[in-house]
Design brief:
Length: 381
């Protein structure tokens, strides 16, 4: 009976292991290429030459020498979970089944993270570019903008990457950047952003969001280039990952359930359950893969608000903003609304007229070419 239960649980794990509604759903599954948890990946030979308006015959045939490479799937083990006999009878649900479902969900999350790391480019190169963002400054970095994505789209086009199948897995901060760029977009994407289930098209890319993002740091041998850090590294910058779906594959191998029943565990008198799963993801070739990281900003040049006077003011009233680095200010905002007008009195002062605002509290910010200031709150009544 225990062996039968293990086999049934293993079949159910593989059946339900799907990564539904995530970026990994864009990647083709090649489970049929797997044998004994080793995948055999075919490598196509040279493509044929296309002759235009040819008049020379006969046409000599060319040969296509195919090859393959093998790779072991990655092994993922869950730590065992204990279920006591007391819990089996006291809880209002069947805990063993719930534990097994939780193990499957955890395996889906971790394999998705590891797959994203595996498919992200190793380093900046001519065929695998790593670009920097160019937007407004926030928290010492430059925001991702739609213009950055257009630049990346153009770069892929110059590399002859087909338009269909271009996918970007955004880091959470880059997803927030794109929504902050456009309030209408934020409203349209908001619900999906909460779950990570974007799957929407934007400037030629299908966008997804992942909680995990691989990190890149400047290459020690070339400070103008970025290099991917270790899987669980916390150093470097989080990146959004560009995948060309037709050149990516994933595969699931075998699954095994490890379980001991309480009756066979007299010392602790508890059931113990754990799983092992074999899984992997690979890029068939470099074409169409890239990354984009947030460029660092010189925070010393950012505008800084020290105070806003008065701190309580009427709608359409006037305030004086005191601070530093105000020269060349391009905007003053009260919440999301631009000032009716403003004058830069000096590098340390701005006089601004409020727009028509409803009663409430509003954050005041100053924007210059260097980026956005910190916020100071005022009350409008």
């Amino acid at each position: 009976m225990p062996q039968l239960q293990n086999e049934l649980a293993e079949r159910e794990l593989i059946k339900q292991f799907r990564h539904d509604n995530t970026w990994l759903g864009e990647v083709r599954a090649k489970n049929n290429w797997v044998n004994n948890d080793v995948i055999k990946i075919p490598i196509r030979g040279a493509a044929p030459t296309v002759l235009i308006n040819n008049t020379s015959y006969p046409l000599d045939p060319s040969t296509r020498n195919d090859d393959f490479k093998t790779a072991s799937l990655h092994k993922y083990d869950t730590e065992n979970t204990a279920v006591t006999d007391d819990e089996l009878y006291a809880l209002p649900y069947e805990k063993v089944s719930d534990v097994q479902e939780q193990h499957r969900e955890t395996l889906e999350d971790v394999t998705s993270e590891h797959a994203l790391y595996a498919l992200s480019v190793a380093q900046d190169s001519l065929t695998t570019p790593v670009l920097e963002t160019t937007g407004d400054v926030v928290n010492g970095r430059k925001r991702l903008t739609t213009a950055d994505l257009i630049k990346l789209w153009e770069k892929l086009g110059k590399m002859n990457v087909p338009k269909a199948g271009r996918v970007i897995v955004l880091s959470t901060e880059h997803a927030a950047d794109l929504m902050a760029e456009d309030s209408g977009r934020a409203k349209a994407w908001g619900a999906d952003f909460q779950t990570g289930n974007f799957g929407v098209m934007h400037v030629g890319f299908k966008l997804w969001v992942a909680n995990y993002s691989p990190r890149y740091a400047q290459d020690a041998n070339d400070s103008n280039k970025y290099k991917k850090q270790a899987f669980e590294s916390l150093s470097g910058k989080e990146a959004s990952v560009v995948i060309f779906a037709p050149n990516a594959i994933k595969a699931t191998g075998s699954a095994k359930r490890y379980a001991v029943e309480a009756a066979q565990n007299p010392r602790y008198r508890q059931n113990e359950i754990g799983f092992r799963l074999w899984f992997g993801a690979w890029a068939l070739k470099d074409e169409g893969f890239a990354a984009i990281v947030s460029a660092s900003a010189d925070v010393s040049a950012l505008p800084n608000i020290g105070s806003v006077s008065p701190s309580a003011v009427a709608s359409e009233g006037t305030v004086v903003i005191s601070g530093t680095n105000f020269t060349g200010a391009t905007a003053v905002k009260f919440g999301a609304t631009a000032a009716a007008s403003f004058t830069v009195d000096s590098n340390n002062g701005i006089t601004a007229v409020l727009p028509v605002l409803a009663n409430g509290n509003y954050d005041v910010i100053v924007i210059t070419a260097a980026g956005q200031s910190n916020a100071k709150s005022i009350s409008v009544s």
